[in-house]
């Protein structure tokens, strides 16, 4: 099953897709938006069709103390709208520290500031999706399902 990971933002939306076995996440081109009101549903629909996506994982920006702020609400609204528009199961997944991990990885790779900015969202989506895939493996081997869709 191919899964699409989304790092949702006002200006950029990072995308990643799993391989068909659901084991490895790979980055896809980032969607650039002119503003938070620009609809990206069709671009995501095309990516889902192109990669044969059967599930979408949207990053949930949870605060370090476990609370949910305004960004979490926006991400949930985005996920609900996607589920309704595309008819694909959408799962929210904790994205804490994915941007920090992406930045560290790029700094270790000696990428310039401009290249880091250009690649941050894609790499964050990839890290988010890989975290989800790894958790699926761990929990499925323990016999505990963890998928909780926004819409069935």
Rounded to the nearest angstrom, the radius of gyration is: 15 Å
Q: Order of strands across the biggest sheet?
A: 3-2-1-4-5
**What is the first-to-last residue Cα distance?**
16 Å
CATH architecture: 2-Layer Sandwich
Number of helices: 4
CATH class: Alpha Beta
CATH topology call: Nucleotidyltransferase, domain 5
Q: How many structural units, i.e. domains?
A: 1
* Strand content range: 15-25%
Q: Average pLDDT value?
A: 82
Structural class: alpha/beta
The residue fraction in helices comes out at: 40-55%
Number of strands: 5
SSE string, helix = H, strand = E?
EEEHEHEHH
Give the overall silhouette: globular
Uncertain spans, ≥5 residues at pLDDT below 50?
Answer: 142-147
Major sheet attributes: 5 strands, mixed
Give an overview in words.
Strands 3-2-1-4-5 form a five-stranded mixed beta sheet, sandwiched between helices. The chain has helices at residues 41-51, 70-86, 98-108, 113-141, and strands at 2-7, 12-18, 25-32, 53-60, 89-94. The protein is α/β, with parallel strands linked by helices. Strand 2 and strand 3 (25-32) form a beta hairpin. The protein has one domain (2-141): Nucleotidyltransferase, domain 5. It has four helices and five strands; from the N terminus they run βββαβαβαα.
């Amino acid at each position: 099953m191919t899964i699409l990971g989304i790092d949702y933002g006002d200006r950029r939306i990072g995308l990643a897709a799993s391989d068909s076995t659901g084991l490895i996440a790979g980055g896809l081109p980032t969607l650039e938006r002119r503003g938070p009101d620009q609809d990206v549903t069709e671009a995501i629909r095309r990516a889902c069709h192109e990669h044969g996506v059967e599930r979408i994982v949207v990053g949930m920006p949870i605060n370090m103390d476990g609370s949910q702020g305004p960004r979490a609400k926006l991400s949930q609204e985005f996920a609900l709208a996607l589920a309704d528009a595309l008819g694909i199961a959408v799962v929210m997944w904790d994205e804490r520290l994915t941007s920090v991990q992406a930045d560290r990885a790029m700094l270790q790779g000696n990428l310039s500031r401009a290249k880091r900015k250009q690649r941050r969202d894609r790499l964050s989506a990839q890290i988010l999706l890989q975290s989800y895939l790894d958790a699926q493996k761990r929990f499925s081997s323990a016999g505990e399902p963890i998928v909780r869709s926004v819409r069935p």
